[in-house]
Amino acid sequence: MPPERRFVGFDAYLRVIEASDVVLLCTTPHFRPLHMRAAVEAGKHLFVEKPVATDAPGVRSILESARIAREKKLNVVSGLCYRYMFAKQAVMERVHNGDIGQIVAMQTTYNTGGLWHRGRKEGWSDMEWQIRNWLYFTWLSGDHIAEQHIHSLDKIAWAMQDEMPVKATSSGGRVQRTDAIYGNVYDHFNTVYEWKNGVRAFSSCRQWNGASSDVSDQIFGTAGSAELQSHTIKGPKSWRWKSEEEDNMYQNEHNALFAAIRAGRVIDNSQYMANSTLMAILGRMAAYTGQTVTWEQALHSTEDLSPKSYEWGKLPTAEIAVPGVTKFA
Length: 329
Fold this sequence. Notes:
Blueprint: H1 12-18, E1 22-25, H2 32-41, E2 45-48, H3 56-71, E3 76-78, H4 86-96, E4 103-112, H5 126-132, H6 138-141, H7 144-147, H8 150-159, E5 167-173, E6 188-194, E7 200-207, E8 214-221, E9 224-227, E10 232-234, E11 239-240, H9 249-263, H10 270-289, E12 293-294, H11 295-299
Parallel strand pairs: 1-2, 2-3, 4-7
Antiparallel strand pairs: 4-8, 5-6, 5-12, 6-7, 8-9, 9-10, 10-11
Helix pairs in contact: 2-3, 3-10, 8-10
């Protein structure tokens, strides 16, 4: 990259957008609303990585930017990549067509090991240290229920044809990542999401070293069940995905974006990417406060996790939430 195309600073995104035809928003999630607004105002097609915000004001900003994008007929393709996997599309089509009957319950798990940490080098300010280790600060990542488990939550929202839950009850905390280097995020969440028809989804996610891993999603119906990760239907209409077709979901989503641009078509994934982000934030709010939180409460929350200013200087680590003590805002 020539020097004149290298941009530095909190406002560097403006010059990147100006120099681009298509913009991929893949920075730390906190900055997604700011960057998306600038990109749509500049008339750029977008790939928007997940999650799209870390708090409710950010989600509302994304929805407003999406409105502007629709007016300008701009493509907005989401980084919730499972929706672009042909095998997932096939099994979900069967769920929606009633091959397992009426959905009565769901279970989704994203249990993994710990992730990377870059430590802290001499000379790094608090702001630089937090941004370089953004996974561990809720204002930057949304906590891992939003940064990682959102994929699982998006799949169950998809199974419900993007009808969102009306409330969530959750628990969580820190049992391995207790050192101050891990900021203020949790290392596990267990959440129950409930829909207006009484369907419940049991959601578990954790990042523990030395513990068993499990990434799976089960949809249980009145006439069978679906296992989304293995693309399997069990019951009277048993089925399993078989295909020789290349199916790289990461490539598929970009293929779709650029094909739409070239054909003059518009893809708009904005509603489900915003909803699934808020679904994750809803679970986090319920866990952090220890309270049952409704969808409407989460959507209209005034909690703004943004720092007071964007400067390379001091920035205290936010307090670790304590269920039953931390208040909903």
